[in-house]
Amino acid sequence: MALLSRLILSNFRNFAALDVVLPPGVVVLCGANAQGKTTLLEAVYLLAIARSFRAENEREVVNFAAAQDGQQALVGAHLERDDQRLQVFVGYSCSTPSTVPQADGGRRGLNYSVRKEIRVNRVRRTAADLVGTVGAVLFNADDIQLVQGPPAGRRRYLDILISQGDPLYLKALQRYTQVVRQRNRLLRLLREGRAESTELEFWDDRLVSEGAWLSWQRTQALNLLAGLCADHHRNLSSPGELLTLEHLPSIPFGQDLEATAGHFRQALAGQKARELATASTAVGPHRDDFKLLVDGVDMGTFASRGQARTIALTLRLAEASYLSQVRQDEPVVLLDDVLSEMDEDRRRRVLEKVSGYGQSLITTTDLDLVRPYFGNSATYLLVSEGAVTPLAPES
Predict the structure, then answer these.
(1) CA-CA distance, 377 to 390, in Å (whole number)?
(2) What is the dihedral of CA 170, 175, 178, 182, to 10 degrees?
(3) Burial 135-159, CB ≥16 within 10 A → b, else e
(4) Is 366 helix (H, G, I), strand (E, B) or coil?
(5) 117/126 Cα distance (integer angstroms)
(6) pLDDT, position 110
(7) Is the Cβ–Cβ distance between 179 and 208 less than 8 Å?
(8) What band does 340 get if pLDDT is binned at 50, 70 and 90?
(9) d(Cα 19, Cα 357) in Å, to the nearest integer?
(10) Are the beta carbons of 279 and 195 closer than 8 angstroms?
(11) What is the pLDDT of residues 95-153, one digit of tens each?
């Protein structure tokens, strides 16, 4: 079991400085809105996937006042695993900001860049090296988009899931993404008559090589995930409901990796005219999706909000089970204000599931949602104005 025993923040959003001890078991982070509860989960999850789940740009996570002064920001943790202790740090160095003038002579704001550096036990690492060091699963209100949102969200869910279990997957995904980018650039040049068609052969080979392996790994992961989803959904939903996952790869799946690569080449050959017209790669893992069906009905189209919420929870619980099996190491479970929309029975079932893990961090504005269930067996921390203080146990 892995345990985050200490979380350290410096100039990370509204936390100027924080050094907090995190015990095993359930840790409840309570307080009013906009005090920093989600920021704490964001920091933990950042250490797991090497980027913020709610920032489009690295600059967003750095405290604005600190960035103005060119100060550094830091997210760090001590990780205890068996007899091993790891110190994991993600640092942000801000360039000296410069004022960007407006046309009317006003001041639009500050323009500065951020450089990220990752260290594990003081040794510099890449983002791909970091992923999988700290295993974590995040539940948040936006998870409903996994059911009712566009395919990109479901692909990202799968990519994070598999990458935390297999570091080779993320590196292959990065290579594949670069190949698609270069191939698309060449397709634009071909459309404009500024390149030869024979130049495409090299990128086709790279695309098939990397893409077939990714597609194979996704299919294997979905096969395991489907059974876990079915088990968790039976516990959360109405009796008798069956949740199934249907993989929708853009290339047919073969009996082995070689056959999958062959199908990929055939699909690619059939899309040449379309690709030249659109200057974009038409088939490959970047076009994959999967359906979620209850008793054969597509929930992406027909789920009520309540059904979608339950299925999203199922996906996250299945993700935690998947990582436990594949990594042989329990993830840290993070619940970000997802309890308020549940009825009492479903809330009890979810809390029962997550409390079975070695460490769970739960945010809430209402202690009455969790305290009756955990009593004094959980640790309660008050988050207010960028500070964290322990709450005394109930007498």
Answers:
(1) 14
(2) -160
(3) bbbbbbeebbebbbeeeebbbebbb
(4) coil
(5) 8
(6) 52
(7) no
(8) confident
(9) 24
(10) no
(11) 865 544 545 444 445 577 899 999 999 999 999 999 999 999 999 999 999 999 999 99
